[in-house]
Write a structure and sequence with these properties.
The chain is α/β, with parallel strands linked by helices. The protein is built from 13 helices and 18 strands.
Length: about 375
């Protein structure tokens, strides 16, 4: 087979030696045989390089000083030859059919990306029963939607859930390294619709590991939010430059208005302005905001069991019963975030119960806040 048929799996690793062998083995055990596996070690100080050396010529090692995820992506891509490229986080796993199922879709010259959901697993590899992302993946020509509404307007999986056309990556790599030490996959995901079409695979083709010590998931909510706002402020400028090269007009103000992180930042500030520090409030967001408790806020998920999100109510009666339980337990407010606005229509009796019995303090495109105090 020629290099045109070659697929490249680029594993980026930093101090994930405890998981690295599973990632490498999953890349080597693909049913698509014409695959090269490149392992980029980004200055690890654990046993990672010993593990990499144990594979001999089965893999292509790229050993470098610590520079972050973007620098690892850049170094791995520079060492690759495949026409279809997969970036695999070293704490994740590719299922054996991933490369075969994705590569066969890249026959169309205007296709730049194929993506799929991932099963969530715990640190020991056990499935949690959840998928990432939970919503339906977008596909087709998304350029007009992205130009109109801005980046982050379509749900996409993290690094391991994507395959990329080399011709697309050659247009945008190397990416800026200082700005994308983490979340480098977002840089690729957000730019892709400008350059071509996206296809989806409905069934999961990989495993996404949840564990302590993750470079992103271990961060507190405020830190993630600050990073997200700064990331997209910078990225909007980067993306607008590519739009200019492609002759596409953009509205940066509209992008900032629609950005998930900018909306969440505004919503967080609005909640802080209404709810006194330390007060408990019920947060209905379908567990999508990732808001944690600190000195100035104490959110309780809804539904809730032992402080954890427990899913949607089966009906209005259950919703009202659980709401009343949390109110008796000390919740003074209930906040609906925009990802769960549909609850107010679907659970119509709950909405009537709230509006008829409690004062609505704020209602806009981001939040609806009710005061539960007497």
């Amino acid at each position: 087979m020629s290099d045109r048929d070659l697929a490249s799996i680029i594993i980026n690793n930093y101090n994930y030696g405890v998981f690295l062998r599973e990632a490498v083995d999953s890349a080597l055990n693909q049913t698509y045989l014409n695959t090269e596996v490149i392992v980029v070690d980004d200055g690890s100080t654990d046993r990672s390089r010993e593990i990499i050396a144990s594979y001999g010529d089965q893999i292509i090692p790229v050993l470098k000083g610590n520079g972050g995820q973007a620098s690892a992506f850049n170094a791995g891509f520079a060492a690759s030859r495949g026409e279809v490229v997969f970036f695999l986080d070293s704490d994740d796993i590719l299922l054996p059919t991933a490369v075969k199922n994705a590569t066969k879709l890249f026959r169309s010259p205007d296709l730049v990306k194929v993506h799929w959901p991932l099963w969530e697993i715990d640190k020991d590899g056990g499935k949690t029963g959840q998928m990432k992302p939970q919503g339906a993946l977008a596909e087709g020509d998304l350029r007009e939607k992205v130009l109109r509404e801005g980046p982050s307007t379509h749900l996409g999986p993290p690094t391991t859930g994507n395959a990329w056309a080399r011709r697309f990556l050659e247009r945008i790599l190397p990416m800026p390294e200082a700005e994308y030490r983490i979340s480098a996959d977002s840089y690729l995901m957000e730019l892709a619709p400008l350059f071509g079409k996206v296809k989806r695979i409905l069934k999961p083709q990989g495993l996404y590991r949840l564990h302590e010590g993750s470079n992103y998931t271990d961060k507190l909510f405020d830190e993630k939010l600050q990073h997200g706002v700064a990331f997209y402020n910078h990225f909007f400028n980067e993306m607008s430059k590519y739009c200019l090269e492609l002759g596409l007009s953009v509205d940066l103000d509209a992008w900032r208005q629609n950005s998930w992180f900018h909306q969440l930042d505004r919503a967080t500030r609005e909640i802080a302005a209404l709810i006194p520090p330390g007060d408990i409030f019920v947060l209905v967001d379908e567990d999508s905001w990732g808001m944690d408790a600190n000195a100035s806020r104490r959110p309780v998920p809804f539904l809730e069991r032992q402080g954890q999100y427990w899913g949607k109510p089966t009906d209005d009666a259950m919703a009202i019963r659980e709401f009343e339980r949390l109110r008796r337990a000390g919740a003074n407010f209930i906040v609906f975030g925009w990802p769960a606005f549909w609850w107010l229509d679907y659970y119509s009796e709950l909405q009537h119960f709230l509006r008829s019995g409690f004062r609505c303090l704020l209602e806009n495109e981001r939040v609806v806040v009710f005061d539960l105090r007497p």
